[in-house]
Each structure stands twice: as C-alpha cells, then as structure tokens.
Specification:
Blueprint: H1 3-29, H2 34-57, H3 68-92, H4 95-102, H5 105-116, H6 123-141, H7 145-149, H8 155-177, H9 183-208, H10 211-214, H11 217-244, H12 246-253, H13 256-267, H14 274-292
Helix pairs in contact: 1-3, 1-4, 1-11, 1-13, 2-3, 2-9, 2-11, 3-8, 3-9, 4-8, 4-13, 5-8, 6-14, 11-12
Length: about 300
Amino acid sequence: MSKETRMTALMLMGTVFWAGAFITGKMGVNVLSPILLTFLRMALSALIIFPGMIIVERSNWKIERERIKYAMAASIVGMIGYHVFFFYALRYTEASKASIINGVNPLVTAILAAVFLKEKLSWRKISLILIAFIGVTLTLSNWDIKRILQFDLNIGDLFMLLGSSLWAAYSIVVKKILPYFTPLKLTSYTFLFSALILLPFALPELIGLNYGEVGWMPFLAVLYMAVFPSVLGYTIQQMAIQEMGAGKTALFINLVPVFSTVFAVVFLKESLFKLNIISGLMILGSVMLFRKQKT
C-alpha cells in the first residue's frame, strides 16, 4: 500500500471521527449542559495530548509568558466559543442539519480572511460563496422563505451558524499567531487554557450532578469526542498535510456533513427534510469548487 493510499484511508477515518462528534454531541447534550460538555471535552483532550506534546517538543514545550495571551485568545474564540454554540445548537436542532450548516465554515473563513488579512477574492469565488449562502438560507428555513423574512427560525440552527462563524474567526486568529507556535503546541495549550477558563463554571454542575441518574452514556460520548475527533482527528490531519498537502487534506473535510447525515439517520433515527439534501449539496459543491480555485 502506497503512502498516499494509506493517508487517504486515514483521512477518511478522521472524517468519520469528526462526523461522529455530531452524533455523540447530540447524545450528551440532552443530559449535560453545553458548558460542562465543552469543559469535559477540552480537559480530556488536554490530558491526552499534552504529554505527547511534551515528548515531541522536548525542550520547546513550555509556553513563553508573552505568548500566553495569543493562546488564550485562540481558546476563547475557537475552542470555547465554537463548542459552546455547537452543543447549544445540538440541543435545539437535528445533528444532520447542524452538520450541513457547519459545512459553510471554509467560506466564512475566506470572507474573514479577505476582510482582516487582505486576501483577495475573485469574482468566481464570490459567486460560489453566494451560492453556498443561498444553500444555507434554504436549509435554515427548510425551503420556506417566509420564515427567513419573518425571522421564524430554529434557534439551534442560528447557534450552529454562530458557532461556525466563531470557528472561522479562530482560523484567522491561528493564521496570525501560528508563527509563534508549532501546530501541536498551540492545540495543546488551547485545550488546556479552555479547560482552565471553564473550570469555575463547570465545577458547580460537576459537584451537584446526580451521576446515578445521568448514567454512563453522556460520559462515553465525551470520551469519544475527546479521543477520536479531537486528538486522533487532529493527529491524522497533521500527518495528511505533511504527506498530501493542505489542499488535498481540506477536501476530505467536505465529507463530514455527508457522513454526519447518514449517521444521524441511522443512529438517531432523524428524518431528513428531503429538500435540505439539495441545499446541502449546494453548500458542499460550492465549497469543493471554491477550494479548487487558485485565484
């Protein structure tokens, strides 16, 4: 088996891991609060990835005092901001719909990069962004434009759109501060700082939780999200970028809404609104074509 074939198989596995986060998140959010879920995911991820980062980075694993503020900013905007809205979204909307809306993230990132990093957008790219956002609008309204005009929308869908926008903002922050860190070091410290920031808010719920009534399923869901999408998914992605390049690696992420939708129908018994398949394909196709554009 060639290196590229092996990495393709690994990236498909990573895509499945990320898609599974929408399913396990849905399982956990009905019992645990979004704040507690985010804290547990960040804390467990930090416990797993931090020792490995120390081994890999060796003498360079400590964070310099003047760079703490950069990692803190990434933690608040991306890890905390995105995940809190992600879990709130799953409390009020279907996992399949949340994953479709989240698929627009690369295009939101491109818009923010054009505004804040002065990256150029061609007219072709702008047209693809517009098509994708038409797809998002149709998905948000279940193809009923009156609901958009009357702002009669599912609050969970709006939470997912806000969360996706925060993750796009996180991507811009990372582009600005990555010269000060290695990707592994930055990720490890954002997990750690996110857990520390959320600890005072999560601790009262942890103390007052009726563990017998809650059961073990929500905690297994958190364990899955920490180990597979966060730690293993990140590691696979970094390996793929080194072997295949960032462009090819990014294309696999487009499959996340596809796998998430299938998993939601199979495991959560969600009934997918059929027209949203079309709007989802509009988003997916626009993102894939967007990533193929050189200018």
